[in-house]
Amino acid sequence: xMLHQTKVKRRKFMQRPFRxxxxxxxxxxxxxxxxxxxxxxxxxxxxxxxxxxxxxGTFGDQFAPISALMAAAMVTSKLRxxxxxxxxxxxxxxxxxKEVATLDALSGGRFEFGLGAGWMGSEYEQAGLxxxxxxxxxxxxxxxxxxxxxxxxxxxxxxxxxxYRITGIQNFPAPVQQPHPPLLIGAGGRRMLAIAAREADIxxxxxxxxxxxxxxxxxxxxxxxxxxxxxxxxxxxxxxxRFTQLELSVLTTPVFTNNRRQGAEQIAQKRGWSGIAIEExxxxxxxxxxxxxxxxxxMLERRERFGVSYYMTFDHRMEAFAPLVDQLxxx
Length: 331
Known about the structure:
Layout: E1 19-23, H1 30-42, E2 47-50, H2 65-74, E3 80-83, E4 86-87, H3 93-106, E5 111-116, H4 121-127, H5 134-152, E6 157-160, E7 165-169, E8 183-187, H6 190-199, E9 202-205, E10 210-211, E11 214-215, H7 225-239, E12 247-251, E13 253-256, H8 260-271, H9 278-282, E14 287-290, H10 292-306, E15 308-314, H11 318-328
Parallel strand pairs: 1-2, 1-15, 2-3, 3-5, 4-5, 5-8, 8-9, 9-12, 12-15, 13-14
Antiparallel strand pairs: 6-7, 10-11
């Protein structure tokens, strides 16, 4: 299938320095976890990240993120830790707000607060939780964001919302990072992108929204440069003057190879994409194919076009991805 091609007015973005994060899927035991955190720091990664799930899904068994991230912080000195992302529905915001502030305080100001509206319907069902329609979950997320920012302000906080009623709560401890730890919101649809534009410090741009617990990003068009341009335009429109303050992030699919065409064909085969031009795959903003030098050049070009400077990779690619981290971090 050929993707629809449109002419896009390309804008140059403020050049934020590159940084890189490791999203962990392979847990191992206590010593393996400590070793992974230390190795990520040695290799120059900025962040070590964990999902927030209590069933394996397609990504395997996961540690509980709060305690595991704190343990990682205790065996490192510079590595930042982050949630990718906390499901807002799994904890009351007063409870999670206290956990986040404590993580930031005890890590010495190294926590990054990733938050989402929840998406994995089967997990909700297994846990006996109500999986409300997307609009309701997003409404609840917006109230939670008000709550977190109110709690982190350090004064008595009250909210009479539709989903949360909070009276005179004063959070302790105060986060080290002020006014609050950097807030990352993962977003793929227009409404979530608008919320992220207004409220987040970091926007994790997804290929598409997650509906009914299922990803809607199997269509290659969702990964296209044209679709990504549209998301950036939505972000810019909603953010207004604060757009230049946003750090833009994506989870990458890298293929290290001397033959870019074959690498792109491998991606198409693995994802079941048929009839798509190889050139379109090679232009997708989250897909990087080639040698380390070629991929580094692609990242430089895409930062200029799309403004993305924060790239994440899975832990099983941590070593292979490290030369890029070495070449580009802070650049």
